[in-house]
Amino acid sequence: MSTSMSSSPDHFIAPVHTPDIAPVPVTFLMCSPKLYDVNYVINPWMAGHVHDSSRTVAMAQWKRLYEAVTQLADVVLVEPQPGSPDMVFTANAGLEHNGVVVLSSFFHAERQGEERHFRRWFQQAGYTVLSLPRETPFEGEGDALFAVDGSRLWAGYGPRTSKSSHHYLSEAWKIEVASLHLIDERFYHLDTCFAPLEGGSVLYYPPAFDQASIMQIEDYYAANKRIVVTEADALRFACNVINIDRTVILNEVSRELSDQLKSNGFRVIEVQLSEFLKAGGAAKCLVMRLSGATH
Ligand SMILES: NC(=O)NCCC[C@H](N)C(=O)O
What we know:
There is one protein chain. By secondary structure, the chain is an alpha/beta fold. The protein has a single domain (2-10, 20-292), classed as L-arginine/glycine Amidinotransferase, Chain A (5-stranded Propeller), CATH 3.75.10.10. The protein has 8 helices and 16 strands. The chain has helices at residues 55-70, 109-112, 114-124, 165-173, 211-220, 231-234, 255-263, 274-277, and strands spanning 2-4, 23-30, 74-77, 94-97, 100-103, 128-131, 144-146, 152-157, 176-181, 194-197, 201-204, 226-228, 242-244, 247-250, 267-270, 288-292. Residues 42-43, 46, 86, 89, 91-92, 111, 142, 189, 191-192, 279-281, 285 line the site of citrulline.
């Protein structure tokens, strides 16, 4: 079922139909890099890398990530589509919770073509799909992350997602949304600089946020629960982690950070993802968390 959100938040109608989806522990949506390329520049990472990535190397790196994820969770695949080279970054397809997907409304025209492919996939899989107006950019899980206890949604805004989209997210799941302002173009999505982790800790790079946002993060997470990432590790996409129970899967990071994660009780799996960094993404961008799927 597809439901369209009206252009005015006042007229937003919450979904009335949630399909029966058999719950599975955790499922991730991934997309093969068969058609991956850096074709345009919509973030600072892509500058200087147009057509500079190797699809062969990207495929080998993606397969290692796929294998690591499938050891711990189910993976479902969406078919890559010609003309959508960034589709491999399925985190940006939308945000799903309880069988409801709020579909992304991409800021850049270069990625807007992905929307119909992801919409079709979610509809065929039985999700209720909600759409945002074109003038309300929202980039899915790239900019919206649930607190691990589900008590709130952390949502980024600034370079891509608009703050006005957060109201829709709050309405979709009747959940408190904490809005965080991203102020560094290199960290243009929330999932490039912030990761709530199992056990109630958080991995983050403070300079990516304005002061009010840092205060919100620090009000929520006690000092001993905050794992602050250095700029060098942030630039290795250290915050871009796939967290499944006590395991974190991420790009190669410093020994210090890896040891810190281990001393916080995490098993650390590092997968080299250099080809995807050229487009501005890493481990977490390459998966979308789903609470249920029909196939
Ligand atoms: N950070 C993410 O969640 N995804 C990476 C998206 C990379 C893509 N080239 C983009 O700029 O939208």
